[in-house]
Description:
12 strands, Jelly Rolls, 225 residues, disordered C terminus, 4 helices, five-stranded antiparallel β-sheet
Amino acid sequence: MYIRSIVGALAGLVLTTNAQAAIINGDFSSAIALDGWSFLGNVTENDPASPGQRAILNTSGGTTNTSAINSALGINIATVTSSNTGGSFSNGSFLYQSFTVTGIGELSFEWNFLSNAGGFNNGHDYAFFVLQAVATELAEWPGDVSVVAQSGFSQSSGFETTTVSGLAAGSYLLGFGVVNVNGTGGDSGLLIDNVALADDTPTVPVPATAALLGLGLIGLRRRAS
């Protein structure tokens, strides 16, 4: 019985643990504004119209520096804009951070697309996220917004959660962007909150520890015999 108990303990050392990986300040609760994040354009942390802290990206005061955007996010912002909207990039704001997965990762975040575009633009303002230099649209004006005011904007999509599963071990760059298309007459925004990364990492016994436990088992068998 005693030997069986130790064997069971050894088996229990090989587990899969659910460890939170290094997304820094994913809920934007740090006392340091945008701690752990980098940004281009107009990005702030406070959202006075909602409880808690959230990042808000706003095309008002956004950057037009396409070289800086492309270098930071690993994309071609002109091509991404044209492919998603059929229009031309005017300006935008962007938030990004690198992280590492050691096992199998699952990334999640909450977002809300905001707009005052109305009838100002000939193109469609839009919001997207970037993961490893691949841009994926989140929402676009006008089809994805309703007349629900939020955070100083007349229209919003409402909060949604996006989840990306099955991330292999490695280093990743995560980015968010909101873009004015075909002019800057009506601005748009993007709220980001609760960015989290679950990392399922196999834990194996330390070789030296396993060897010592193995020697202990041999000694127990000899004593039992």
